[in-house]
Structure formats: C-alpha cells, structure tokens
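Please produce the structure of this protein holding GDP-alpha-D-glucose.
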Amino acid sequence: MTRSQQGTLSERVTDALSDRDLTVVSNRQPYAHDYDDGEISVSRPAGGLTAGLDPVMQRTEGTWIAWGDGDADFEVADEDGRVRVPPDDPSYTLSRVRLSEEDVEGYYYGYSNRALWPICHGMIGTARCDGRDFERYRAVNRRFADAVVEQIDEGLVWFQDYHFGLAPRMVRESAEDAVLAQFWHIPWPTWDTFRICPPAETIVSSLLANDLLVFHTRKYVHNFLECVAEAVPEATVDRVSGTVRHRGNATTVVAFPLGVDAARIGELAERDAWPDLEARHELEDRTIALGVDRLDYTKGIPERIYALERFFEDHPDQRGELTYVQKGTGSREEIAAYQHLQERVDRAIDRVNGRFETDDWQPIVRVEEHLPKEELYALYRHSDLALVTPLRDGMNLVAKEFVAAQLDRRGVLLLSEFAGAHEELGDDAVTINPYDTQGVADAIDRAVSLSEEERRERMTNLRERVETYDLVAWMDDVLSAALDCREHRDRITSENV
Ligand code: GDG
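Below is the modeled complex.
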C-alpha cells in the first residue's frame, strides 16, 4: 500500500479519484441550509470527518448522500433533493434524502440510537430493541440505497457508520459490480453482546456486502470476525488476512484509526482565542482540568465527577488550586436516557460545588455553549489535564485534538482504557479505568504531580503519533484499501470474461 506524504493524499489515490466518482453516504450532511430572518443561510455542521471529506469530494466532483432535515434544505435543492456545493464554488452534488417525523423517530432515535448505539457500546441495560423501529430503519436504509443505485456508475461508494447497517446489501442486490466500503465509527462488541440486538444476523450479513469494512481498532475487527463466524456460519473467515467470503463476495475487514487534522488544530490553537467564559478570572493561575464531551452516557461524565469529588476529599490542599471545566454539549435530548444523564450530571456538579466551593473558587465550571473551533483549541492548549474517561468509545477524537493543540507540551492526557484512542495513545497517557472512582482520583493526583520533564516527554511522544497518523493519512489508507478491492474485483471480472 502506498503511504501518503504527511498532509497529502498519495498519488495513487488522487489519480484514481480524479477519474472515477466517489459517493459518500452519511446521516449528517456536510452543508445545511436554514431560514435566518426570512433569508436562507448556509452552515457547516461541526465534525472533523465532514471537514476532512469535503476537500476530497471537491476534487472528485462526486455525490454526497445525506439526510436533509429542514424545509430550507429542500427549497434550495431540485425536485430530487440535489444541490451543488460548496455554495460559493460548487464542485460536487449533495443529494438530500427527506425523512418524515416517523422516519426520524424510528430510524434515527429508535433503532440507530436506542438499539445499535448502546449495544455496540456494551450498555445492554440501556438498549431498547423494538421491531417497529427496525422496520423504519430498514425502510430508510432502502431509501438511501435507492438514492445510491440511482446515480451509481462505476465509482466507489463509501458508507459512514451504524445508521447504514442494511444499505450495503440493498445496493449490492442491484449493483453487483459496485465497489462498496463502510467505516463503522463506534465500537463493535462481542457476539454475546451484539446478538441481543434483533435481527443481529441480518446486520452482520448485510455488512458483508461491502468490499471493505473498516473499524477504528484491531479489537473491533476481531469482535466482528467472531460475530461473522457465529451469525453467518456459511461464510468463510480468514482471520489472518481479515477476509470474509460470503455469497460470492469477498470483504476485507481492517482497522484504520481515524486521525485529526493536527496541522490545522495547531494553527488555530496558536491564535490563542481564549473563550469569553464567565468564570475566566477564576481559572487564571490555577491548574485546569478539562473534559469535552457530547453529553452521552457512554462518555463517563458522572463517573468522572465522582472521581473529582474523591480527589478533593483526599487532597484538601488541591481545593482552590485545581478547577475542572466541563465543556458539555447537549445531544439526542429526545431520548429518555439522555435526559436522565443530564440530570445526573447536574446533580453531581451541584453536589461537588456545594461541598467545596469558596468565595473565590468553584471546583467545577460548566460550559454549555458550542464553542468555535479556535476557542475550543485555545482551551485545550491552556489546560493542564484532559480527562478523557469514556466507559466505552469507538475512538474519542477529543483525546487527539487535545494533544494536537498542546503546542507548549505541558499538559497530561488521562485516558480511559476503554476508548479506541487508547490503542494508539495508551503508552504516554495516564491510563484510567473510569469505573474505578478511587483509581481515577489517584490518577488525577499522579498527573498533577508529574515533573515538567516527564510531561514534556509524554506529550512529545503523543504529538508525534497524532501528527504522523492524521486525518489525511487515515483517509489515504481507507481509500487505498478500497482501490485494492476495486482492482481485485476488476481482475475477477476480466478472468471471467
Ligand atoms: C463518534 C464516536 C469517534 C465538542 N464540543 C464542541 C466541539 N466538539 C467536538 C470535538 C470532537 C467531537 O465534537 C466529539 O468527538 P468524539 O470522537 O469525542 O465523539 P462522538 O461524537 O461520540 O463521535 C467516537 C467519532 O465518532 C469519530 O469516528 O471518535 O468514538 O462515538 O471533534 O471537538 N466542537 C466545537 N465546539 C464545541 O463546543 N467546535
């Protein structure tokens, strides 16, 4: 496989993409249109992946299929939901799929986020698997698959994530020779866990209609192959090469950990755009510990606050010295488990603040608003500790962004052993088990006590890893592997002629 030069796609990928179309399929769209004071304005929903894929799409002039979720999205589009983007210099087509309220409820909140999300994260007690939601999920996957088939030529189709567990098989049934790839952004659990999610076999077998299936870590690849062996016994699994043969198709199953745009994060962090926080003066000259999360029960936020409480109990000398900033953005608030989480977080923060705060110090500062990137990166840059403590996480980009923004190499990363990022960053982070309250409290103490020299050494190693395997290197690996699959397919077709 050809490796890209740092920051650029390899020649092989660039050449291949310029002569054949790329179709990306994702739940979220790269550009959203909204009504703004009677006018239509356009915004770019946040997300590293969308930002990373957009330039690739501009180069390939392909098609991006995604859920269009407002009237303005369709007002600017043609009758098939298509609009050329980027708005100021159009080069590719955004093809919007319109979903009804019932679709969103059953496909998005229902099967995707009440069933697949908790099950893939091993939180089976939180999962709600309702056959009616699955039927919506199937119907919406059919709509996306039809949109792919309508415009597919001889190009490459790249599905993003767990919202599309059925679409690959649906596309394959109509487009036998298409090259299909999928990136699964969340963990893949063991068969014992995944089988709880009915109909688990159908999802596993549908994913095998892809030529390439990519996960963040080797562990998830291992778990998926185990699921194939159990759920699809007629498939042949080669664990060494990661190849599965099933119904005349060969699927390469491989791990490429998603990276961040480290160079860009560094540039923005350099601007020092410190956010205008109410508690800003309180943070000056204090040790800052930072947590940045979508408010999700997989991120271990209440557990982290319990550990901070223990830390302040055990180390009275740290009261007034260390402030924890919880940057938490609301998420999936229509789902009961998320409302319950919000209440738990609020209660825990109020208790810790109530117990320890003084006239001029608050142990925990909440930041709820969505921050512009450069402000978020300034916060990363000036924090002494990042508390990345998910109970389970596919990757966790916050860990990598924190490292990329640490231009002064003073900060320490505390990282859960259950985050995908731990496979790459574990050696130089302070590893924690988020379920172990005392262990996390002790790790915070260890982290604040590390010598400057040791912090610098650890952060230098972490930065080297995050800069070397960045977003472009990841994309190049995925697209190169997809091209390998295409060559394999072309070879087989020509042998059969
Ligand atoms: C899924 C998987 C996997 C947060 N607050 C603000 C803001 N953010 C950005 C962060 C980061 C992103 O949100 C969160 O990324 P994560 O990776 O932590 O998490 P998920 O949303 O759960 O994503 C995860 C990921 O997919 C990619 O494959 O790593 O495991 O669960 O980028 O920076 N961004 C801005 N302002 C905020 O206030 N600008």
